[in-house]
Amino acid sequence: MKIVYLNINGLLHTDHRSNLNSDRNLKKADLICIAESKLSEVIPSESVQVDGFTIVARLDVEQHSMGIILYKNNDSEIDGDLVTVMTSGTEDRTQIL
């Protein structure tokens, strides 16, 4: 299993999304986890879609800082149902079971 973790400091800032769509190394990952996505619930998932991947989790924030988005490669053999988001108290945790 190949997992990529990036602290991107704003998925919609500059051309981060287009870089994700064109990076051949990222395209080989089973899962891509983007930290500091800085997305809020008013931003539709279609506007942050990465070609060849499905969004399996979004932990958005209202303050436009922080946030996490998790993508699963459509060609990956990982079962998307095994990727879940668990919330405990005030802490949000993304856990692969």
Can you describe what's shown?
The protein is mainly β. It has a single domain, classed as Endonuclease/exonuclease/phosphatase (Deoxyribonuclease I, Chain A). Helix content is 11%, strand content 36%. It has a 4-stranded mixed β-sheet with strand order 1-2-4-3, with no helix packed on it. Strands 5-6 form a two-stranded antiparallel sheet. The mean pLDDT is 80.
Highlighted features:
single chain; about 100 residues; mainly beta; Deoxyribonuclease I, Chain A; two-stranded antiparallel sheet
CATH H-tier superfamily: Endonuclease/exonuclease/phosphatase
Major pleated sheet:
4 strands, mixed
Q: Which CATH class applies here?
A: Alpha Beta
- The number of helical runs is 2
CATH architecture: 4-Layer Sandwich
**Beta-strand proportion:** 35-45%
Tell me the overall shape: globular
Would you count the extended β strands for me? Answer: 6
* Euclidean distance between termini CA atoms: 13 Å
Succession of helices and strands: EHHEEEEE
CATH topology: Deoxyribonuclease I, Chain A
Binned, the helix content reads 10-25%
Mean pLDDT over the full residue set:
80
Taking strands numbered 1, 2, ... along the chain, how are they ordered across the largest sheet? 1-2-4-3
Quickly give the structural class.
mainly beta
Identify low-pLDDT runs. Answer: none
Whole-number radius of gyration? 13 Å
What is shown here, in short?
This protein is mainly β. The chain has helices spanning 16-22, 24-27; strands at 3-7, 31-35, 53-59, 68-73, 83-88, 91-96. The protein is built from 2 helices and 6 strands; from the N terminus they run βααβββββ.
